[in-house]
Write a structure and sequence with these properties.
single chain; alpha/beta; 13 helices; Rossmann fold; 34% helix; 18 strands
Length: 391
């Protein structure tokens, strides 16, 4: 994005152009031509300004699922929006910092400022830095647009003194020239700086797949899911760390959290009347046995993340199913059993077995009138098929 054009967009004339771009009902090319005729400046300036305005309109619409009502007033870059934290997750992180009495925080690589917004709303004195001047300008504009305090500047995270702040937050870039990277050794800022920061009160946003072995012994690892999708792993150090492993589940009903202190352990057992599919954050945190204990049950298989119980529980940490019956595991016999039950629309869940659900569904070639759900998994090392229904 052209920095000068973005700065102009923040002026009164720019805001008028942005409003007209948001109200445009014609197709993109016609809207672009019409807005270029209306915008002030030279031909080159008009083209750049209109492109930025139309891009903001598109990005604001894309941002709604992630940022809610704030999206209509915020500004974005395409990669900045992609990397921004979902507002519910950012609010949870800010609430944890506030609960730990962190009065000030520095965001080392603030991007477009999504986390800065959450920190400021939590009443925390907020500062952000980023190497990209465009992102810095966008983050500054977002704080202003939402009426929030905070300072943002261009700086290198590896050279900034963080000691004046109660806590540091860093969301390392996880992309290289070849695209997304899953190795902590490719992070920017580098893992060596992250390790140094984890020696004080710091929160590090990491990918959910971060290896447990890379997490320092005295650091809390929290996996967070929102609306059933695992969004991140957060590493908490210093006085911000309160346990070793934590799974936090955010949903329409609020927030729930479970830790290794809630995990007495559980073994495997025969499949009972109910099956539970733990949330992804629970699985990533290695707390499946905590869920098993919470529903007075055990594991279907000691190596797999399915829980079974003879009791029905409502839990935010797993989706529950009633086990209707056990069906044949072999494909030919399974097809016959499903057809006998007039099942035509079939949801296939699987774990620990070499099955591609879409391919199996085609091979089963069902045509009944009943909707059904089956679970293909292992029970104590043996393949099993369960006909289930959600409860």
């Amino acid at each position: 994005m052209d920095l000068d054009a973005f700065r102009w967009l923040l002026t009164d004339d720019g805001q008028q152009l942005l409003a007209r771009a948001a109200e445009a009902t014609d197709d993109e090319l016609r809207a672009q031509d019409r807005l270029r005729r209306e915008a002030p400046g030279s031909t080159e300036e008009r083209a750049s300004r209109v492109a930025v305005a139309l891009a903001q309109v598109t990005l604001r619409r894309k941002a709604v699922p992630k940022l809610g009502d704030d999206a209509a007033r915020m500004y974005f870059t395409p990669d900045g929006l992609e990397q921004a934290t979902r507002s519910t997750v950012a609010a949870h992180r800010a609430a944890r910092l506030s609960a730990a009495s962190a009065g000030s925080v520095i965001d080392l690589g603030c991007g477009i400022g999504g986390d800065l917004v959450a920190f400021a709303r939590a009443g925390i004195t907020t500062a952000g830095i980023d190497l990209d001047p465009v992102r810095v300008e966008v983050a500054r504009a977002n704080l202003a647009a939402l009426g929030l305090p905070g300072a943002v500047s261009v700086a290198d995270a590896t050279t900034v003194d963080v000691t004046p702040f109660d806590a540091a937050f860093v969301d390392p870039a996880r992309r290289t020239g070849g695209g997304r990277t899953f190795s902590v050794d490719d992070w920017t800022p580098p893992w060596t700086l992250v390790e140094e920061l984890l020696g004080r009160d710091t929160c590090v946003k990491a990918a959910p797949g971060i290896p447990h072995a890379r997490i320092p012994e005295d650091v809390e690892a929290e996996w967070v899911s929102d609306a059933g999708e695992v969004k991140e792993a957060a590493l908490w150090s210093g006085r911000l760390a309160t346990t070793r492993r934590r799974a936090t589940v955010i949903g329409h009903g609020g927030l729930a959290t479970i830790t290794d202190e809630d995990d007495p352990g559980a073994g495997d057992r025969d499949v009972g009347d109910f099956l539970y599919e733990p949330d992804g954050a629970v699985i990533r945190a290695g707390l499946v046995t905590a869920v098993a204990a919470g529903v007075n049950g055990g594991l279907v298989d000691e190596h797999l993340a399915y829980v079974t119980s003879d009791e029905a529980f409502r839990t935010p940490f797993a989706r529950g199913f009633r086990v209707v019956e056990t069906l044949p595991y072999r494909e030919k016999a399974l097809r016959a059993a499903l057809r006998e039950r007039n099942i035509g629309s079939l949801t296939i869940k699987k774990r620990g077995v070499d099955v591609v659900p879409d391919e199996l569904r085609k091979r089963l070639s069902l045509s009944g009138d009943v909707t059904g759900t089956i679970v293909l998994t292992r029970a104590r090392g043996h393949g099993i098929t369960l006909l289930v229904e959600p409860f």
